[in-house]
Amino acid sequence: MPAFAATSPLQFLQARIDAVHPESAAAFVASYDVTGTDAHGLADGGAAYTYDQALTLLAFLSSGDNARARRIGNALVWAQAHDRFYHDGRLRNAYAAGVIDATPARLPGYWSKTENKWIEDSYQVGSASGNQAWAGIALLRLSAATGDRRYADAARSIGRFLIDKVGVTGGLPGGFEGFEPSPQTLTWCSTEHNADALASLRLLDATYPGEGFGAAADQLRAFLATMWQGDHYAVGTLPDGKTINPYSSLDAQTFTLMALAAAPATGRSAMAYLQRTHGVPGGFDYSDAKAGLWPEGTLQAALVYKLTGQPEKAQTLIDTQIEALTPEGGLYAVQGIGGAPLDRLDTKLRLGNGEGLEWYYYRRIHIAPVAWLVMAQAGYNPLASASAPGK
Predict the structure, then answer these.
(1) Residue 372, SS3?
(2) In which domain, by residue range, is 279 found?
């Protein structure tokens, strides 16, 4: 890994993209600092997850750094237009980090000496609905900030993919996972994904009225209403698309509250639930196992506290994460409770339709929580409606 000079979270992100030369080129930033040589480490080494790129772009916008935001936006536009197989507006879940100028756009992977072949990850090459929505949100906000219509047009194609290929029938299903030409269809509906897509479709409707984005957004809002369980939002449905999944998820609360601009009573109720079921000293776990602290979700919660009129709680979480910054301004993806060692955090989720590999976060520096820290400090809500862009 190259050395990065930084003293603050924003400078950490700026240093990461500045290290990709030439500095004017379209570029993606590696999501993690990975040094492992096992299959998992090799798969994530040099991988730039689309969700992380969208967050980093939005963090730059929240600080007025449009130039660096454009570098990531240009990379998203390029990747969409230069896929090796798909030409329907979708993006992959991840790309190879670095300058994005190859045709087709490079995907992550590694050469296996034992198998004597190139290995790619089935999740990384897929197209999850939530990741599409986050890319669309980032591109639409970048278009609004710069006046460059190319970004909005790319987001429009993503929106059409979500409506036409994934399908909005009540809730929005999970998207696709696996390799072309026949990836697995994810049939569950995620509350978090639907909240992300609601924000993206509302922004699209404001930009391209009369193209069906508003009607689709109304369906997603109705779906989210059915997920309200009296004091919190359910995580979504099982693969049948109807049965409520009993699993408890942090971001089903935070993202939905951001996207809906929920009434103060609803927001406070959901956050109280989150504190009871996911709260650990200093922050929150991803799941209700309370086995460790998830910095990314903790900072999402800090932003929601700000948005629901609880600034003291927000600042406590922000201060805790500022204390956890590395000397370069980064954050680890997981933290042990009370300083205890923690190598990985189990989300209690599985890939695919619930039958795939377990989903873990590992103790390594991750750009996503840093981006959330920048946005939480600024009080910048990336899922806000079109009537209140940004904040």
Answers:
(1) helix
(2) 9-378
Q: Pick from 1, 4, 10, 2: which is nearest to 322 by CA?
A: 10
pLDDT in tens, 155-199: 999 999 999 999 887 899 999 999 999 999 999 999 999 999 999
Could you give the number of structural domains in the chain?
1
Alpha helix positions (H), the chain: 9-18, 39-44, 50-62, 66-81, 129-146, 149-161, 191-207, 213-226, 250-260, 264-278, 295-307, 311-323, 367-378
Measured CA to CA, the distance from residue 48 to residue 142 in angstroms comes to: 19
Structure tokens at 282: 């200093």
Please name the residue ranges forming H helices in 109-246.
Answer: 129-146, 149-161, 191-207, 213-226
Work out whether the CA dihedral 120, 122, 126, 130 comes out positive or negative. negative
CB atoms within 10 A of CB 370: 31
Q: What CATH number did the domain enclosing 135 receive? A: 1.50.10.10
Q: What is the pLDDT of residues 70-86, one digit of tens each?
A: 999 999 999 999 999 99
Q: Is residue 385 part of a domain?
A: no
Spatial CA neighbour of 333 closest among 305, 357, 359, 314:
359
Residue 163 lies in a domain: yes
Tokens 């109720």 locate to 269
State the number of CA atoms in the 13 A half-sphere of 346 facing the CB.
8
Which is nearest to 27 in space by CA: 114, 98, 101?
A: 98
